[in-house]
Amino acid sequence: MNGFFQYSRKMTGVAGVLLGSAISFTSIPLVFAQEKKPKKLSIYDDPTPEIVLVESPTKLEQDIRKTRTKIAQTKNKFEYNLRGVINKWIEIEQKTEKTIKDVIDPRERFMPEVLYIAVAGLAGTIAARNRNILIRIASPVIFTIAASYYFIPQTSHNISAKIREYEERSPKFMKVHESIKNTADEVKLKFDSIRNSKK
């Protein structure tokens, strides 16, 4: 019996070890080591890895970068505004050119008549040289307008229509224009009557 107990104790110990190892085996995850075949060793040294130096910009470089950026932005804004001014100027030129083409009558000769009108304006200055200041200022204008209605009547009419169009916004100028036109018509009638009487 003694031998049986010893045998059962040994078996109990073995069973305990097996049970303990089985429990610990199930609680620990298994890791399998997979080996690759070792590479054949090279007779040369391993290549040295390339060293890359990353330079951080200095404060001076950062300040220069900020300044250049601000200058570039200012330049772009200036160019944009300049383009806007140029476009407005071109638009004004086109409107002026269209207005001039609308005003000038192509059937009338322009060159000698403009010279005659300029001479009439100068004659108005000479005629009023010993008069008071208002007559000295008004007479060249009146002579020029009267001569323009005589030498280039259709163009003068177109100019007065265009001025009237602008004057409709301000009635005070309309009265002045009407009085100048009436004076010019009277001068033209007198000049025509003198010219017809000489023939």
TrEMBL record:
Biological-process GO terms, alphabetical: cristae formation
Top-level lineage group: Eukaryota
Chain ranges passing through the membrane: 133-152
GO cellular component term of the entry, any: MICOS complex
InterPro entries in alphabetical order: MIC26/MIC27, Mic26_fungi
Annotated keywords: Membrane, Mitochondrion, Mitochondrion inner membrane, Transmembrane, Transmembrane helix
Localisation per UniProt entry: Mitochondrion inner membrane
Subunit relationships: Component of the mitochondrial contact site and cristae organizing system (MICOS) complex.
Function: Component of the MICOS complex, a large protein complex of the mitochondrial inner membrane that plays crucial roles in the maintenance of crista junctions, inner membrane architecture, and formation of contact sites to the outer membrane.
Protein name: MICOS complex subunit
